[in-house]
Design a protein that fits this description.
The protein is of the alpha+beta class. It contains two helices and five strands; from the N terminus they run H-E-E-H-E-E-E. The strands form two sheets. The chain has a three-stranded antiparallel β-sheet, covered by helices on one side. Helix 1 packs across helix 2. The longest helix has 13 residues.
Amino acid sequence: MAVSMSALPSSIGIPQPDADAILRTLSVLFNPDDVIELRALSTRGRKQTPAGYFDREHRFLLVSEAVRLNRQGIAVYATLNTINPLLHSRYANRIEPNATATTTDADVLRRRWLLIDL
């Protein structure tokens, strides 16, 4: 039996980003002193790649930017492995709306995680 979307209870809504859960997840995936690249994929209109690098003192800002971008319908993710901390100077603790330089394989210093997307 097929159920139309209009038949679903009104209490079921679009999932919203959870800032606390994001911060907890970052604390599991990264060491405290790691620089983290936040990258996003914007497919609406002209293709853009918002990206930025965040240090330890600005994890809350990283989370805030991730939530902001996601609420705009943009998919966000963090580069999972340990990257060269010198990359922080590219877009230090901020999102560059149309980043032309992002992390490459050569910028990865250590592999800690392997993402398998099924």
